[in-house]
Input
Amino acid sequence: MPGASTLLEAFLDPARYHFDPSSLWNFGAAALIVACGAGVLYWERGGKVSRLFAGATALLALWSAGRGAARLLNDPAMLQPLWQWVYLGGMLALPLLYQFSVMMLRTDTRRGFAIRLNWLIGAVIAAAAVGSGAVIIGFREYAWGPEPVLGPVGYAAMVWLGTMMIAVTVDAIRALRKAPRGTLERQRVVLFMVAIACLFAGVVDFLPFMGFDVYPAAFVPVSVFVVLTGGITLRYGLVNVTPELATQEIVGLVRGALLILDRDGIVRFGNAEAAALLGRKDLAGVQGRELMGDALSPEQLAHLARAEGREAEKEILFQSGRRTGPVRDLALTASAVRDRRHRDVAFVCLLRDVTDAKRIQQQRWTEGLRDSLTGLPGRAMFLELLDNSVKRAAEARDYDFAVCFVGVDRLNVVNEDLGYSAGDQVLAEVARRLRRTSRAQDVVARIGGDEFGILLETSGSEEVQRFVARLMESVRAPLNLADHDLHLSASIGVAESTWTYGGGAEVLRDAGMAMYRVKQNGGGDAHFVTRGDRGMQRTRLESDMHRALEQNEFRVFYQPVMDISDRRVAGFEALVRWQHPERGLMLPGAFIELAEQIGIARQIDTFVLEHACADLARFQEATRDRRLTMSVNMAEGCLRDPTFIERVGALLARNGLEPASLRIEVLERVAMIGPLRGTLARLRGLGVGVAVDDFGTGYSSLSRLHELPVSVLKVDREFVRGITAAGGEKIINAIIALAQSLGLTLVAEGASQAREVRRLSDLGCRYVQGFYFSQPVPFEQALASARQGDGGFGEKFKEVSAGWLATPAAARPVQPAPATLGSRLGRFFGLH
Output
């Protein structure tokens, strides 16, 4: 029997053909079938159902084209092998069509055995069709041309086909009964049953095989079947859980306003709650931006779907009734439907009206922030402002503040003798006097009961002492109340920012303890927090710190390092925090110095290093397209440990990290210690980066910097803050030139404003970290930032760019002409 090569030669030999117009119908049907299969495969992005459909259409097209070719052949010897190959395509198409049918009817989870059995039978019959004459044993001549005569295997194949037809019909009827009326699922089942009925009409082609003089027009019902099922697959297909189909499964379970949008941001489904909330009767086909602006744009929904924690919900102000109704607060959450290549193809959004909840929350918050009796801020607002002052003092060396904790003396006597209403009048009057004595920029608050707090910016202790003297004099002025002249007094405790604090609660606690000490001594005086007062707390803090190590109270936060050239997250710096059970989250400034003094700083650094390496592996797993770095601060004690290098190597190996992805940061003074330079050199030999932190504060190291085994310079934040002042960029210029000449990476710390980032970029500094982009955040939030490439700081980068573009051309900074390292350092030291 001729093989495939012989058939190919026959098809290429013009002498074997004669023209038959009826064959054009078969070739046209084959072209239509192939086009439908390719279209579904393309539009459904190669999902499982689309692949099955495309495979079946390819075999059906082979069958139809083969029938057309049989009409053109005028060589009887070629009919037998040609028909055997046509039969091969038909037999392999049947199991594909059966599997496609059970998936469309959603019975595939119960038909696994039947699908495998069909594939086995189809393979056996197809092999018999090509390898023997058991399927086609001859030909019978009709008016339109010769048709095969089936052998025993051919009739067995017809029985197999009939069985499949019955099975598919039964499954279709069951699916129709289960589908609720008026749903998309029922529409899909009904349309598919129509398509199946058309396909069944294709058995007309088997009648001539059995001697019936009926024209073989199966290409018509088969083509109709393909077109119908192609449309059903695109409209209702199960490939990528399209919005319409997903709705059938989840709409009954969702309580709230549900929207489903496609990848272009067009609403494909909205339930009744969504229509009522958004004030639109028909949401299908509407652009999401038209409903809620950019909040429902594909870019924003993709960003929201990848966020984690609290960032995974977005609050939106929405005015219902086409901008004429009341303004509502909506909470939006979104999840993405992704294909096998992890591309977003649809978004499922849930909207909740949180207007009333926010109003209640705001009312409670306002009650906590503002004291109803005196009209002063409450304890919550005071602590929030005090926290900000503590952070500002930690960052800016020229900022000082003080807190006065004022307790009204013997108020209980007034309450007992004159009543609580009189006591309230005393408190209201004291509040007025405190406000009158304070400056406009100072904050006066009622802490609780008979206690007040005053937060004031100062220029030194002498100014605070003068203020306290005025305060006491103001409070002591006589007060006429109910025909009584009351002589008031107050006990005042004062805590200043000259002491290191980790948060506002610590400052208030110290000031409160000082105030109670005054009351114990009779009241009417003031006491400033001293070293002795804090020493009493130090003993307890030492005990708490040892307990913190045992009970795992330390936390590792991460601040992103931004590549402002590529506008993406380049890495993170690991920073320790202490989650104190009583004092809350404490910053390093409140405990690191003490930890070094009592000898446990090395244990804390080791804890941070281990967690940072483990988390870096998770960062890199989530961002395979780029290599993130991790910077970890190390104290002198860790570097003196003879096993430090081995422990670092073991950590890298355990977490599967490249050594270059880890950077050990040391203070400038530590880097200059002779014995430790050997440790740093061994780190560099291992491949680990070494960074000099707060570079520029120790000028003596400039002349020896080239001798140090370092790879990164981190510019001190004070220099960064001064970059926008007149002449403030000179130091940065010198350090950039120094880093470039030595081949070192430069990172600018402490950038808190767009203009600082812009100026750093103008000067050629590529890497920046600071509060402008992000404060240190927990791992989950940092991971969400890393996954986004730009860290979710696209608006920040736009602000930097917009500011530069908005600068008049004449006012834009002019890049200085290239200068030598010597001239730069000369300007740095004021020699030029």
User: Anything to note?
Assistant: The chain has four domains: 4-236, 250-360, 370-529, 552-828.
